[in-house]
Amino acid sequence: MKLAEALLERSECQERLHVLESRIQANLKVQEGDAPHEDPQALLREAAEVSERLCTLVQRINRTNQALELEEGVTLSDALARRDMLRQRRQFLSSLAQSARERDYRLTHSEVKMRLTLDLGALQKEIDALSKAYRELDTRIQGLNWTCELLE
């Protein structure tokens, strides 16, 4: 199994657990004398099986990420951490830029005028650079995910 396939299966397991939880919640209580639409015990057993599969997948994915190198001396785990940091930094700066772009509407002439304390152009250039770095790194990571085998 390729690493990318395991990542897709992990996502499916996570979604499956959310669905199972909803189904159990929907059948957790019934009016006295009524029967649940689905057997909550059977759903719990299924959730336990999916959880075990998810745990196994996560362990194998983690081992693979730690063993593979994206480039000399940079493990896939390190690259993933870097990609996450790039995404978070970009979101942080984008949020600041969005706040800076919001107009302050004054109702009367006596209200205080506002001015920007950050260079919005420079901020946008940094956001663009982070976006490019993220995209390039993500492409390399995705390429590796589809070419390497998942470790046991």
Could you describe the 3D structure shown?
The chain has 152 residues and is mainly alpha-helical. It folds into 2 domains: 1-67; 70-101 and 117-146. Helices cover 70% and strands 3% of the residues. It has 4 helices and 2 strands. It has a two-stranded antiparallel sheet with strand order 1-2. Strand 1 (69-71) and strand 2 form a beta hairpin. Helix 1 (3-26) packs antiparallel against helix 2 (40-67) and helix 3 packs antiparallel against helix 4 (120-147).
Note the main attributes of this structure:
mainly alpha; two-stranded antiparallel sheet; flat
Low-confidence stretches: none
Mean pLDDT equals 92
Q: What is the CA–CA distance across the termini? A: 10 Å
Class per helix and strand makeup: mainly alpha
Tally of contiguous helical segments: 4
Could you write a compact summary of the structure shown?
It is built from four helices and two strands.
Write the layout of secondary structure elements.
Blueprint: H1 3-26, H2 40-67, E1 69-71, E2 74-75, H3 76-101, H4 120-147
Antiparallel strand pairs: 1-2
Helix pairs in contact: 1-2, 3-4
